[in-house]
């Protein structure tokens, strides 16, 4: 199984029954929170849901709960008052051979095509957003908002000029790297360590071109040295689409307080993540890993090839493993510890929500998007204003997008060029 599939199994295994001491909300609190979300614009900055678009049996308009593969669909978006977000073009990191680069190029284009096909097939329910102001218009029209992002820029290694094509097709958020180093940047989690000590020369050129086009840069998954390069290099703010606090759990995917303050000073935003392995030490053993590998062999398909029906089988199998070889479960308490710390460091103007749905995110007591009002209820309980909550649920991120697009528009005007927005 590829690295992505292995990491997903770790997180899926954490979605076990709720512990006795977990935070609870009354029905009145949740109803008030949902009503508030329905008035506001509620966006998540990192949805891996396009990974399901090719799966046999998956229909975004149908409910697929009790399934290890699916946490986002239209019925649960409606139940959880999620207006939409950034749908990710994710490409597994290959071996960086010329053949792998071509495979990554084609895989990225295929995922982009699947997103655009979904939009064309369901124009009454979903709409593509291209500017920071489009989201509110789409919500007002009664549809769900689809921004397009790219997680891992490896599809651009073989031909970086494809970035312009992706932009014209809707790309508005770009990260350079994923679990392992690539030709553009160092990853926070590559076991081999740093290769470029930040952005590579090709990565600097890619980031510069993205800024010219008005694409927001996403630092999640990149190393701290990449963060430092972005702080020094970018004329506009950037974001972390799904990351958490290193002060709460010292994981390389998380951000330390010094860099959090630098991010806020630069006008950027961190979207707090709910991937259990980045929130807590899950204590996974070799025996548990071997049991998960055996479960996948029993199901008889690689993670990317699983059907939606097999997702039910996978969830049941992981639940049985939890009884014999349990892992520590990440809960809303753990998530709120990260969220509260980050809010205390940078303030609500620089915080958002990016829970990594359908990519390993979710908690024992926040298992899919239908439960999102729990987060809003917590924010209300903590005394945050409606305006601050609106910022956290998308306004802060869209402010960064507006700045990026205004900067690009200013360059076009200055240079006398009429490039597409």
Give an overview of the whole structure.
- It is a single chain.
- By secondary structure, the chain is α/β, with parallel strands linked by helices.
- The protein has a single domain, classed as TIM Barrel.
- 45% of the residues lie in helices and 10% in strands.
- The protein has 15 helices and nine strands.
- Strand 3, helix 5 and strand 4 form a beta-alpha-beta unit.
- Helix 2 packs across helix 14 and helix 11 packs antiparallel against helix 12.
- The longest helix is centred in the last third of the chain and has 30 residues.
- It is globular, with a radius of gyration of 20 Å.
- 50% of the residues are buried.
- Keywords: Signal.
- InterPro entries: Metal_Hydrolase (IPR032466), Pept_M19 (IPR008257).
- It comes from Stenotrophomonas oahuensis.
- This is Dipeptidase.
- It holds the Pfam family Peptidase_M19.
What is the fold's blueprint, element by element?
Blueprint: H1 3-13, H2 27-39, E1 43-47, H3 74-79, E2 84-90, H4 98-121, E3 126-128, H5 134-140, E4 144-151, H6 162-169, E5 171-175, H7 201-213, E6 216-218, H8 224-233, E7 239-243, H9 257-265, E8 269-272, H10 276-279, H11 286-299, H12 308-324, H13 332-346, E9 351-353, H14 373-381, H15 386-415
Parallel strand pairs: 1-2, 2-4, 3-4, 4-5, 5-6, 7-8, 8-9
């Amino acid at each position: 199984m590829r690295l992505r599939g292995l990491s997903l199994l770790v997180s899926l295994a954490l979605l076990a029954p709720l512990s006795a001491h977990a935070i609870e909300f009354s029905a009145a609190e949740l109803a008030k929170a949902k009503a508030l979300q329905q008035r506001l614009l509620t966006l998540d900055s990192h949805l891996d849901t396009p990974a399901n678009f090719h799966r046999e049996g998956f229909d975004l308009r149908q409910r697929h709960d009790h399934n290890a593969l699916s946490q986002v669909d239209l019925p649960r978006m409606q139940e959880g008052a999620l207006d939409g977000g950034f749908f990710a073009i994710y490409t597994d990191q290959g071996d960086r051979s010329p053949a792998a680069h071509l495979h990554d190029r084609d895989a990225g284009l295929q995922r982009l095509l699947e997103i655009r096909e979904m939009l064309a097939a369901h124009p009454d329910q979903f709409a593509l957003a291209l500017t920071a102001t489009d989201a509110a218009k789409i919500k007002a029209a009664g549809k769900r908002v689809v921004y397009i992002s790219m997680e891992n820029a490896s599809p651009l290694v073989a031909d970086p000029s494809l970035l312009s094509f992706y932009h014209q097709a809707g790309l508005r958020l770009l990260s350079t790297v994923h679990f392992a180093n690539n030709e553009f940047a160092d990853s926070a989690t590559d076991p081999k360590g740093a290769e470029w000590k930040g952005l590579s020369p090709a990565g600097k050129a890619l980031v510069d071109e993205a800024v010219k086009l008005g694409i927001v840069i996403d630092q999640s998954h990149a190393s701290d040295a990449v963060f430092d390069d972005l702080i020094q290099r970018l004329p506009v703010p950037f974001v972390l689409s799904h990351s958490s606090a290193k002060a709460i759990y010292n994981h390389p995917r998380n951000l330390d307080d010094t860099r959090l303050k630098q991010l806020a000073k630069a006008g950027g935003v961190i979207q707090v993540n709910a991937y259990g392995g980045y929130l807590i030490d899950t204590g996974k053993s070799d025996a548990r890993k071997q049991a998960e590998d055996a479960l996948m062999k029993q199901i008889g398909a690689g993670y990317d090839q699983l059907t939606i029906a097999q997702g039910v089988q996978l969830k049941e199998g992981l639940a049985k493993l939890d009884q014999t070889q349990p892992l520590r479960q990440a809960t809303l308490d753990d998530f709120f510890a990260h969220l509260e710390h980050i809010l205390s460091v940078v303030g609500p103007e620089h915080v958002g929500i990016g829970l990594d749905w359908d990519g390993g995110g979710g908690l024992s007591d926040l298992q899919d998007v239908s439960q999102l009002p729990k987060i809003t209820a917590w924010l209300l309980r903590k005394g945050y204003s409606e305006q601050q909550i609106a910022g956290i649920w998308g306004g802060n991120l869209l402010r960064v997008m507006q700045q990026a697009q205004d900067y690009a528009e200013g360059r076009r005007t200055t240079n006398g060029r009429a490039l597409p927005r």
